[in-house]
TrEMBL record:
<protein>
    <submittedName>
        <fullName>ABC transporter ATP-binding protein</fullName>
    </submittedName>
</protein>
<dbReference type="InterPro" id="IPR017911">
    <property type="entry name" value="MacB-like_ATP-bd"/>
</dbReference>
<keyword id="KW-0067">ATP-binding</keyword>
<feature type="region of interest" description="Disordered">
    <location>
        <begin position="1"/>
        <end position="21"/>
    </location>
</feature>
<dbReference type="InterPro" id="IPR003439">
    <property type="entry name" value="ABC_transporter-like_ATP-bd"/>
</dbReference>
<keyword id="KW-0547">Nucleotide-binding</keyword>
<dbReference type="InterPro" id="IPR017871">
    <property type="entry name" value="ABC_transporter-like_CS"/>
</dbReference>
<dbReference type="InterPro" id="IPR003593">
    <property type="entry name" value="AAA+_ATPase"/>
</dbReference>
<dbReference type="GO" id="GO:0005524">
    <property type="term" value="F:ATP binding"/>
</dbReference>
<feature type="domain" description="ABC transporter">
    <location>
        <begin position="22"/>
        <end position="248"/>
    </location>
</feature>
<dbReference type="InterPro" id="IPR015854">
    <property type="entry name" value="ABC_transpr_LolD-like"/>
</dbReference>
<dbReference type="InterPro" id="IPR027417">
    <property type="entry name" value="P-loop_NTPase"/>
</dbReference>
<feature type="compositionally biased region" description="Low complexity">
    <location>
        <begin position="1"/>
        <end position="15"/>
    </location>
</feature>
<keyword id="KW-0813">Transport</keyword>
<dbReference type="Pfam" id="PF00005">
    <property type="entry name" value="ABC_tran"/>
</dbReference>
Length: 248
């Protein structure tokens, strides 16, 4: 079994102790396929430390998105452990129920997909603020805090001047930068990005990569990047290549 590392510290098993932010151990994921099952992830292990980045590469159908879906709590693996270490807890994502998974996706796990999936009628700022309303009934204080955080993050992604513009009026690259800002709203420990630049021209794609790698370092977030682009993969601290679901 090969373990891909974007980690510098030894794993330990206590919350609060040093160790990788994400540690996936011997993960297996299968899907129903006619009478039988297809193995999408085949005994894969990997680690990512806070502030570090890991690229998951491999040919089409090799299991990259499935691996990310497991780390995102969107799919539960058949077996294996998926340890997420946050400042407050150490949790096996393979074991959490749907409600806890949804809470973790709001607070500890930021996700960016190929398409930004924004609500066009909202402004960039509202798009980010909506992340907070999903978790709690807004009060005056949480409203002000959400607005402050949204504006800070829009500044970080270079869209401070566009906070009040409808996202439907933004370019593809700008929309993806809003999606990155939205993924950071909950102050996540883990940022997951699935082909975040493949719908963009090379210049916008590079800007989004700069942003993802820069924010991972700056905010001490562990970044998993699914990509088929060798240049993007080479910019990450480490890489794992999947072939037929297995790390090679
Ligand atoms: N919901 C599903 N039901 C059944 N099989 C699936 C499902 N999702 C993925 N698979 C299968 O699992 C395997 C891995 O798919 P996955 O999408 O993870 O690969 P990928 O490397 O991300 O591919 P791509 O680069 O084309 O997006 C493939 O054989 C795929 O057909």
């Amino acid at each position: 079994m090969t373990t891909a590392h974007a980690a510098t510290t030894a794993p330990t098993d206590r919350a609060g102790a040093p160790g990788p932010t994400l540690r996936m151990e011997d993960v297996v994921l299968t899907y129903p396929d006619g009478e039988g099952r297809v193995t999408a992830v085949d005994h894969v292990s990997l680690e990512i430390d806070r502030g570090r980045s890991l690229a998951v590469t491999g040919p089409s159908g090799s299991g990259k998105s499935s691996m990310l879906a497991v780390a995102a709590t969107l799919t539960r693996p058949d077996s294996g452990q998926v340890w997420l270490r946050t400042p407050a807890s150490l949790v096996d994502l393979a074991m959490v129920d749907r409600a806890r998974a949804a809470e973790l996706r709001r607070t500890e796990i930021g996700i960016v997909f190929q398409q930004a999936n924004l609500i066009d009628s909202l402004t960039a700022r509202e798009q980010l603020e909506a992340m907070v309303w999903l978790g709690a009934r807004p009060t005056g204080r949480t409203r002000r805090a959400a607005r402050r955080r949204a504006d800070e993050l829009l500044d970080v992604v270079g869209l401070g001047g566009a906070a009040g513009r409808s996202v439907g009026a933004l370019s593809g690259g700008q929309r993806q930068r809003v999606a990155v800002a939205r993924a950071l709203m909950g102050r996540p420990s883990l940022l997951l990005a699935d082909e975040p630049t493949s719908a963009l021209d090379s210049e916008s794609g590079e800007a989004v990569m700069d942003l993802l790698l820069g924010t991972a370092r700056e905010f001490d977030v562990a970044l998993m990047l699914v990509t088929h682009d060798a240049r993007n993969a080479a910019r990450c601290d480490a890489q794992v290549k999947l072939v037929d679901g297995a790390a090679v």
